[in-house]
Amino acid sequence: MVEVGPGARALFEEAGTRLYEEALDANGLAVDDPRLQPGAELAEALALLLELGLLGREGNRYVAIDPTAAQSQVVSPLGQRGAELLAESSAWARTFGTLAHAWRRAPQPASGPVTEIRGDAIDPFIGAIVADAETELLTAQPQVGRNAAALAKAAERDSAALERGVRMRTLYQHAARRSSITHKYVATVTERGAEVRTLDEFFNRLIVVDRRLAIIPGREGHSVAIAIREPSLVAYLVDVFERHWERGRAFANNESSMLRDIAAEQRAMTIRMLIEGHADPVSAKRLGVSPRTYAGYVADLKEEFEAQTRFQLGYTMGQRGVSGHERPPTGR
């Protein structure tokens, strides 16, 4: 077996192949060719071709040899080594997976009740804890920032949990009802027993597994996740979720009365954002819509209250006692 690596392959591709083809065309290379002498420009390429068995010496010339035999000496052992490395890698992964499972199940890991997870490690961590779920998954997902690929991956992961008998409840913002990719995800998981509701606004992203582990975003945003195992903190987050869940409206309910109520809630939320003076991007994010859609909501309010500017809109709403906290019409 000839030992080769990336450096040898680069030399072979850059100079070795040309030298081999020259030997073929010229019916051999003179042994005393100045380019082939020690330290000369093609000396290393010559040594490699001789080692690979692509050139052989006959008298005072180096002649080309059929590359088929040389290929079997190089490629086949590399393939075998690759297969062995893949098998070894899988074995190590299984071993580490067993340890990771034990660590996640421990009531109080050595790292403490709160663990910070960053960047590319977040998705594999979430996938692992969902795979460990035994009884219940609670999730709250803001509408902003979820694309088709992420939802497809989540659907596969969550479906596997549901098929194991795990109960799952998910909260979205009302704006999710306008997303075709979210509808596809919801159809997939509800078919397997999940429950999905929507709200005008709720807390940030949250995942709770078996009421023993909660995942929330770090203060730096979604590039950092915080894993919480402290029982009192997890219980508090579950209570927050349950209170919002009670206010939620079933995603699958498309009755006209329900849709009117949802529109009224989004209108009230827009009014509160205006009164509180939030910037449009912040308000749009809290409603789970794009800034353009939020601007459309504001335009609708201007038309409703016959106002030309936001100042006039705020003044008119103030005069009429509109606060955004009025009780929405019933029809649930």
Description:
The strands form 2 sheets. This protein has an 8-stranded mixed beta sheet with strand order 4-10-9-8-5-6-7-11, sandwiched between helices. Strands 1-3-2 form a 3-stranded antiparallel beta sheet. Helices cover 53% and strands 16% of the residues. Helix 1 crosses helix 2 (43-52), helix 5 runs parallel beside helix 6 and helix 9 (280-287) packs across helix 10 (291-304). It is of the alpha+beta class and 332 residues long.
Count the beta strands: 11
Beta-strand content bin: 15-25%
Please trace the helix and strand order, writing H or E for each element: HEHEEHEHEHEHEEEEHEHHHH
Structural class: alpha+beta
Count up the helices: 11
User: On the 0-100 scale, what is the average pLDDT?
Assistant: 82
Strand order of the largest sheet: 4-10-9-8-5-6-7-11
Could you list the spans in which at least 5 consecutive residues all have pLDDT below 50?
Answer: none
Tell me the major beta sheet: 8 strands, mixed
Terminal residue distance: 76 Å
| Residues in helices, as a percent range | 40-55%
Rg, rounded, reads: 33 Å
* Shape category: elongated
Structure in a nutshell:
The chain is α+β, with helices and mostly antiparallel strands and 332 residues long.
Question: Which labels suit this protein?
Answer:
332 residues; alpha+beta; 8-stranded mixed beta sheet
Could you outline the blueprint of secondary structure elements for this entry?
Blueprint: H1 6-25, E1 29-30, H2 43-52, E2 55-58, E3 61-64, H3 67-105, E4 114-118, H4 122-132, E5 136-140, H5 148-163, E6 167-173, H6 180-190, E7 195-199, E8 206-209, E9 213-218, E10 221-228, H7 231-247, E11 249-250, H8 256-276, H9 280-287, H10 291-304, H11 310-319
Parallel strand pairs: 5-6, 6-7
Antiparallel strand pairs: 1-3, 2-3, 4-10, 5-8, 7-11, 8-9, 9-10
